Amino acid sequence: MTHPGDSAALIRPTTGSPTTGSHGRPPRPQLTRLALAGLTAALLTAASAAEPDDPAEPDAAATAIDSTADRHPDLRRLSPTEEVWIDREREEVVVGGRVALDDGLLEFFACPTGTKEHESVVAVAASARLVHAALLAVGLEPGKPVSFDPEYRPATGPRIRVTMRWTDADGAVQEADARSWIRNTRTGKALETDWVFAGSAFWTDPADGREYYQADGGDLVCVSNFPTATLDLPIESSQSNEALLFEVFKERVPKRETPVEMILSAAE
């Protein structure tokens, strides 16, 4: 099984040419369908263990990272190098990150660090593949991504609540519905629609027939519709620059580089 933090050998483009990813960017690490299934099975086994730290003797590097950077020792951390935790009791996924954009038009709400930060409110310190596996580990099953041919069909899947947590300038912990950080450019109001766990898609390399998880290119939590989205909106939202429907609700978003946590759970 491929380790969540060791996927350099799986680098391939998400869409577009074999040498560039979507929007002409360099390709990002991807995950095969088989590796994702294996990763999820391992996470489910680990998450059900009575004592999280019992099963295996961690290596020295993992121990050093966990002992200095693990903010949630009471939760199951899924990788020593990525900030993803699962809370089985509350059926929540916690993902660490930072504010990447506090003003401007949006195509995404959250992307992995180093991908589409110039059009995302949040950059997370995690791969989309690991977030997908974590959602599976807390009992959520993906639906289907958006499709446009022969006609628009919205993304489907379980509705996901996204909550943001951060510490303000006075040292107080704050929480907000992620939708309140996104403003509809036509109405001036905050986003009212829940995301759905669409589950992204797999890209097959015609050269060798191998499959790769597409959302690793940046399409983790989208506000414009993408068939590669892990989480998408079940409403029609154009990705055309001339027709972008959403922007940062800048009066509500903490300043850029503020550390944040994104909490994912089933919406009631």
Oligomer: single chain
User: What are the secondary-structure elements, in order, as H or E?
Assistant: EEHHEEEEEEHEEEEEEEEEE
The Rg value, from CA coordinates, equals: 18 Å
Q: How does the overall form come out from the CA principal axes? A: globular
Query: What is the number of helices?
Result: 3
Taking pLDDT < 50 over at least 5 consecutive residues as the criterion, the unreliable ranges are 1-31, 46-68
For the residues shown, what is the average pLDDT? 81
DSSP strand count: 18
Distance between the termini: 34 Å
The share of residues in extended strands comes to: 25-35%
- Characterize the biggest β-sheet: 11 strands, mixed
Question: Which helices and strands occur, and which strands form pairs?
Answer:
Elements: E1 11-12, E2 28-29, H1 33-47, H2 60-69, E3 76-77, E4 84-87, E5 92-99, E6 105-106, E7 108-112, E8 120-124, H3 128-137, E9 159-167, E10 173-177, E11 182-184, E12 195-197, E13 202-204, E14 211-213, E15 221-222, E16 231-232, E17 246-248, E18 259-266
Parallel strand pairs: 7-8
Antiparallel strand pairs: 1-2, 3-4, 4-5, 5-8, 5-18, 6-17, 7-15, 9-10, 9-12, 9-18, 11-17, 12-16, 13-14
Helix pairs in contact: 1-3
